[in-house]
Design goal:
alpha+beta; 3-stranded antiparallel sheet; 12 helices
Amino acid sequence: MSFSANASAEANVIKVEGTQEFSFSPELTINWQKGDSDSKTSFPMRLLEGTSRVLNPAKYESRLAEARKIHTKSICDCYSLYKTTMPSLTDNQAFLLANGYMLSPGEADNITAILSESSANCPEDADPDVLDTQFKDQFIKGGSAAYDDEVRRIWSSLLSSELKSPGTFSKKTLNMLSSMDKHDVEAFKTLCSFSLTTPGNNRPSPVLTTINGEGWSYNGGGITVDDLGTLDAIGLIDKNTWVTYTLNPHSPQVYQCGTRCFFVKNRTNKDVKFEFGNALFLPSGIELSTLCEMGTSDKIIDLVECALAGTGLDVELSFVPNEAL
């Protein structure tokens, strides 16, 4: 590709003439800053940005700092304007509106509480710039509807986790969490407390004993049939599918529950198959489970022994510290 040395300025647009025309327009610049342009369209600007960073990193960082200073001043000016012209707005509403989010007083308070908690729990070097625009918009929309402390807490944990590892939580998972109320979150955390994990496998295994005589709950009343049905309807689990494990002869399998680990050992001369319960964490459920404490129920060991006793096998449980794995 060849470009001529000619350029013309027309209505704040610089056109580079060549075999492929490209325009640096205000709209394009804004879209690029928001992350709304594709890789080919934004390539010239990304290339220039990268070149500037490499050739003169101090100058690049200085420009970046100045741009952020201007942006911050702009937000403050907008905030003051909104408070003056629309005095009915709360402080949180005005601040969020200055950042482009129009919310009710309650919604603004919800998301502000979440951001405040996340800020307190995030490391000092946490960089919000790693979050893409779509995630931020979905997070604000979903978190603003969290009217309960328990729900806000899981949104805060999600943000902290996403900052550490961008891309951890899918759009589908954010939508599911947006639909959950206090009872749904509590039911999901309860299921996680009854679930085991294995090293190297990110899919937890729920431990669910036979349904009680009245047909309303599992694990001695620990979690209800209705709760599992709700989590299934949300899309976090499939209550009609489960994992079947196979232990080879004289082989151990390690499981983690809370801060402890234990071995299940097959002392027989044949393969042994067993299940822990009739539920399976689906992808979004797996993602959200990383925000919960797994296997922390004080009933978990008794439930494991109950589930394995049904196989009629000789199984030995031995506790080992997590760091020994």
